[in-house]
């Protein structure tokens, strides 16, 4: 069974009450406007997705989506294709009351098609001068431990190569709907 998980990263960031979203990321993205997105170099956009060992993702289904909406409500969404740069293994999430978690981290950049898709959104931004934007990171697990009903995840986004990654999701626990288990 494949489990599909999607994050509405920026939309969730604006909710402020979510403990998994770092305050520094919320502040940074609230200052970033759609016009800044229009000036990004698509080749510099990177995404890191970390999941506990034993939870491999279907790399081919992973997308970075961007939705921009103008003041009239007209929106444009592109689910940008990404390509895998590398896979690393480390640990994340240790703290005062929790042990570190052994994770597999998937490092992505926009593929050639993804670069073209972002350029299309940038053209929309220049023409329509949107007021809002949302990033989504979409992925699917290719397998998971039998009977599991939740998983922790980390998602980081870098929009400019010489800037640090922004933590979009910082060890959030995703619970599967009641009665649904990963198998």
Q: Can you walk me through this structure?
A:
This protein is an alpha+beta fold and 183 residues long. The chain is built from four helices and eight strands. It has helices spanning 9-13, 23-31, 34-38, 112-128; strands at residues 3-8, 46-52, 63-69, 75-92, 101-110, 132-141, 150-158, 166-175. Strands 1-6-3-4-5-2-7-8 form an eight-stranded antiparallel beta sheet. The longest helix has 17 residues, at 112-128. The protein is globular and about 50 Å long. Mean pLDDT is 83; it is low at 1-19.
The fraction of residues assigned to DSSP E strands is: 35-45%
Instruction: Give the SSE order as H and E letters.
Output: EHHHEEEEHEEE
Q: Describe the sheet with the most strands.
A: 8 strands, antiparallel
Give the count of helical stretches.
4
The rounded Rg comes to 17 Å
Number of strands: 8
Query: What distance lies between the first and last C-alpha atoms, to the nearest angstrom?
Result: 6 Å
**Order of strands across the main sheet:** 1-6-3-4-5-2-7-8
Mean pLDDT: 83
Which bin fits the share of residues in helices? 10-25%
| Shape verdict | globular
Helix-and-strand structural type: alpha+beta
Furnish the topology, listing elements before pairings.
Elements: E1 3-8, H1 9-13, H2 23-31, H3 34-38, E2 46-52, E3 63-69, E4 75-92, E5 101-110, H4 112-128, E6 132-141, E7 150-158, E8 166-175
Antiparallel strand pairs: 1-6, 2-5, 2-7, 3-4, 3-6, 4-5, 7-8
